[in-house]
């Protein structure tokens, strides 16, 4: 089954909840306002459920895993403010048609592991997405142990996604700045923090880092030069491919191998690529990326 591990599709319930807000994060019609980014005009067709389902059918996608956009910052809001928004996400997302499945979301300021456990039991929920900003160092990973333990108990994975960009005056910055600077830095920090503090505490938890973890594993030589070590490859850590192409994928394969890589598109913010776009990788690699490796991420199936 071809699986796209990383997409975004906001159901009507979440759109309504964001439009009801008067402070960022909020929607004004189809203009998104966030504290750390310039106002952004969204394409309404990107969140047209029927059109998106048709696009997945045309691509032959068996499962498209949609998640709340962590750069919105909803998970970081205080519990009483975050919960109605997270509820709006879950209530709408689990009603999306085939081929969509759902990454759960959870507040990271006021933790509610019991509520997460209930959400994870839903048959259409594949696991939990967490913002990288909530996993920024080893102590932060330890703080989220109650949420991570619920995922481990449910035998469902965690997807690490960039969180909100720092608030500030972004008028002088190009619009791609958040995606290339804070998002990548967040993924680097979360990847390193997980290896320092996460695996030992959660030995059976499968994880995936979007956008190839911002290419963090490629820094293993610098890590060694500064007194650290990459160590043995962790077979339960995966790398989702969105926003990168053949050069980056080839470089990462040389460090971590083929088995950890899974397909993700970040649709509608990026578009899928096909095996033909990866010259020299071959059909076996395409099958591993789109089918075998995602199955291992989601349920531990043998590769």
Automatic annotation (TrEMBL):
It comes from Kineococcus radiotolerans. InterPro entries: Metal_Hydrolase. This is Amidohydrolase 2.
């Amino acid at each position: 089954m071809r699986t796209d591990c990383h997409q975004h599709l906001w159901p009507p319930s979440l759109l309504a909840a964001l439009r009801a807000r008067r402070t960022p994060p909020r929607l004004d019609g189809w203009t998104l306002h966030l504290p750390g980014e310039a106002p952004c005009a969204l394409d309404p067709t990107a969140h047209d459920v029927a059109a998106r389902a048709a696009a997945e059918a045309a691509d032959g996608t068996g499962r498209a895993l949609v998640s709340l956009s962590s750069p919105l910052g909803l998970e970081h809001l205080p519990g009483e403010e975050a919960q109605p928004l997270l509820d709006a996400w879950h209530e709408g997302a689990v009603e999306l048609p085939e081929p969509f499945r759902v990454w759960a979301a959870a507040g990271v300021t006021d933790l509610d592991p019991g509520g997460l456990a209930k959400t994870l039991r839903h048959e259409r929920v594949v696991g939990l997405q967490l913002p990288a900003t909530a996993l920024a160092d080893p102590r932060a990973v330890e703080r989220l142990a109650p949420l991570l333990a619920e995922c481990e108990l449910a035998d469902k994975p965690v997807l690490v996604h960039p969180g909100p960009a720092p608030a500030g005056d972004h008028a002088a910055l190009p619009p791609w700045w958040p995606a290339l600077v804070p998002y990548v830095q967040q993924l680097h920090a979360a990847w390193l923090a997980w290896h320092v503090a996460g695996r030992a505490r959660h030995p059976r938890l499968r994880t995936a880092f979007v956008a190839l973890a911002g290419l963090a594993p490629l820094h293993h030589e610098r890590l060694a030069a500064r007194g650290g070590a990459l160590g043995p490859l962790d077979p339960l850590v995966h790398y989702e491919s969105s926003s990168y192409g053949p050069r980056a994928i080839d470089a990462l394969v040389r460090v971590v191998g083929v088995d950890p890589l899974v397909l993700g598109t970040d649709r509608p913010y990026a578009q899928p690529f096909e095996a033909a776009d990866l010259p020299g990788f071959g059909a076996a690699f395409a099958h591993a990326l789109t089918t075998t490796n995602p199955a291992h991420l989601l349920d531990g199936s043998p590769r």
